């Protein structure tokens, strides 16, 4: 059994300041390259397809956490 993914800690590695779910991504220094790095880090499958359209729609940390959570799930089971 794997431990659940701590998205706050994972995002914190790339953020430049404190954040909560309503913090705008740009306010904490999360831009496209850091978002892609986050996606690659949490993707449960090495061959996971990253939806660039959905990535472009992310505005706040809560949106990012929901998106990353979707990437981290394989067949209904969370991966670390």
Automatic annotation (TrEMBL):
Record's InterPro entries? ACP-like_sf, PP-bd_ACP, Ppantetheine_attach_site
A Pfam family hit: PP-binding
Keywords per UniProt: Phosphopantetheine, Phosphoprotein
* Domain called Carrier: residue spans: 15-68
Q: Which PROSITE patterns does the UniProt record give?
A: PHOSPHOPANTETHEINE
- What protein name does the entry list? Carrier domain-containing protein
High-level lineage = Bacteria, Bacillati, Actinomycetota, Actinomycetes, Pseudonocardiales
